[in-house]
Amino acid sequence: MTSAVAEQPGPTAPGAPLRGLRVAKGHGTENDFVLVTDEHGRLDLDAAAVAALCDRRAGVGGDGLIRAVRSDALAEGAAALAEDPSATWFMDYRNADGSAAEMCGNGVRVLVAHLLREGLVAPEELADGRTLAVGTRSGVKRVAAAPDDDGRPGWFAVDMGPWSVPGGDAAVADGFDATVAVRGLDGVPRPGLSFDLGNPHVVVALTSREELEGADLLLAPEVAPAPAGGTNVELVVPLDAPAPGVGALLMRVSERGVGETRSCGTGACAAALAVRLWAGADSPDVWRVAVPGGALRVTALPGGRVELAGPAVVVADVVLA
Ligand SMILES: N[C@@H](CCC[C@H](N)C(=O)O)C(=O)O
């Protein structure tokens, strides 16, 4: 499973092999990740090594891999530091197939939980409403400690930044800009609406919980027109409002570079924003998104930004053989 197995003291040299490396495993609503600390950007983590580590049978297993690296230790970090000099940590996110992704909403919370646990970020940095700036390929995201849906502490909230509908006003007015064929439904492609959350999404509304459960996501849904770089696809069913001013929905997701996962944070944002758009002017800004792996909270912020809140836990340390 290692990219190069040789007698090495550890990952201290440029292009160092992974043998003996301590990694961690964590998840956010069961969207799970291999967490690799590579403060000085010295590891040789090519796509094959990432795919091997994420392999659920032959590796550690995960929907993706998160490399925690100092922003000044990699070329992609320069843009983050230019945007916000306090964004000293960068989330190098890779999907389970080894491809790089721009952003991961669950992952950025889990990264912060990992940095806290490793002592690389002090708890005070998130105390008293302070936020931690994290560089990503889709810009700097600010993470704060936040309450869960019952007001208990323990969640993290991420200002995910600006979102957009790539199809513009016409797509918003029509409510869709794509068709999506989903195996296990009635064979008729459904309308979908594309969103840019830093990474690409297409959201499809289904009619019932039964229909959502019947979707077969072992095969990725087919989106037409096919987005050049691929896309994540969210299937959603709106639910009755749980409280005044709060919306709710069920979601399943097929992630680009992975397949069906138990949750997707950027996907939850896209799903909530889509249902909010479809519901019209008076629809709530706060949405509870139920995914197979748990619950997330999405809040549409003023100025076309969106916030994602949810749990993040680290469950294991692993030393690579
Ligand atoms: N699970 C993530 C998204 C991960 C990246 C995605 N598969 C892509 O390729 O864009 C999330 O929580 O947002």
TrEMBL record:
<dbReference type="InterPro" id="IPR018510">
    <property type="entry name" value="DAP_epimerase_AS"/>
</dbReference>
<keyword id="KW-0413">Isomerase</keyword>
<feature type="active site">
    <location>
        <position position="104"/>
    </location>
</feature>
<feature type="active site" description="Proton acceptor">
    <location>
        <position position="264"/>
    </location>
</feature>
<dbReference type="GO" id="GO:0009089">
    <property type="term" value="P:lysine biosynthetic process via diaminopimelate"/>
</dbReference>
<feature type="binding site">
    <location>
        <begin position="265"/>
        <end position="266"/>
    </location>
    <ligand>
        <name>substrate</name>
    </ligand>
</feature>
<feature type="site" description="Could be important to modulate the pK values of the two catalytic cysteine residues">
    <location>
        <position position="201"/>
    </location>
</feature>
<keyword id="KW-0963">Cytoplasm</keyword>
<feature type="binding site">
    <location>
        <position position="232"/>
    </location>
    <ligand>
        <name>substrate</name>
    </ligand>
</feature>
<feature type="binding site">
    <location>
        <position position="199"/>
    </location>
    <ligand>
        <name>substrate</name>
    </ligand>
</feature>
<feature type="binding site">
    <location>
        <begin position="105"/>
        <end position="106"/>
    </location>
    <ligand>
        <name>substrate</name>
    </ligand>
</feature>
<dbReference type="GO" id="GO:0005829">
    <property type="term" value="C:cytosol"/>
</dbReference>
<dbReference type="InterPro" id="IPR001653">
    <property type="entry name" value="DAP_epimerase_DapF"/>
</dbReference>
<dbReference type="GO" id="GO:0008837">
    <property type="term" value="F:diaminopimelate epimerase activity"/>
</dbReference>
<protein>
    <recommendedName>
        <fullName>Diaminopimelate epimerase</fullName>
        <ecNumber>5.1.1.7</ecNumber>
    </recommendedName>
</protein>
<feature type="active site" description="Proton donor">
    <location>
        <position position="104"/>
    </location>
</feature>
<feature type="binding site">
    <location>
        <position position="95"/>
    </location>
    <ligand>
        <name>substrate</name>
    </ligand>
</feature>
<feature type="binding site">
    <location>
        <begin position="255"/>
        <end position="256"/>
    </location>
    <ligand>
        <name>substrate</name>
    </ligand>
</feature>
<comment type="function">
    <text>Catalyzes the stereoinversion of LL-2,6-diaminopimelate (L,L-DAP) to meso-diaminopimelate (meso-DAP), a precursor of L-lysine and an essential component of the bacterial peptidoglycan.</text>
</comment>
<keyword id="KW-0028">Amino-acid biosynthesis</keyword>
<comment type="similarity">
    <text>Belongs to the diaminopimelate epimerase family.</text>
</comment>
<feature type="binding site">
    <location>
        <position position="31"/>
    </location>
    <ligand>
        <name>substrate</name>
    </ligand>
</feature>
<dbReference type="Pfam" id="PF01678">
    <property type="entry name" value="DAP_epimerase"/>
</dbReference>
<comment type="subunit">
    <text>Homodimer.</text>
</comment>
<keyword id="KW-0457">Lysine biosynthesis</keyword>
<feature type="region of interest" description="Disordered">
    <location>
        <begin position="1"/>
        <end position="22"/>
    </location>
</feature>
<comment type="pathway">
    <text>Amino-acid biosynthesis; L-lysine biosynthesis via DAP pathway; DL-2,6-diaminopimelate from LL-2,6-diaminopimelate: step 1/1.</text>
</comment>
<feature type="site" description="Could be important to modulate the pK values of the two catalytic cysteine residues">
    <location>
        <position position="255"/>
    </location>
</feature>
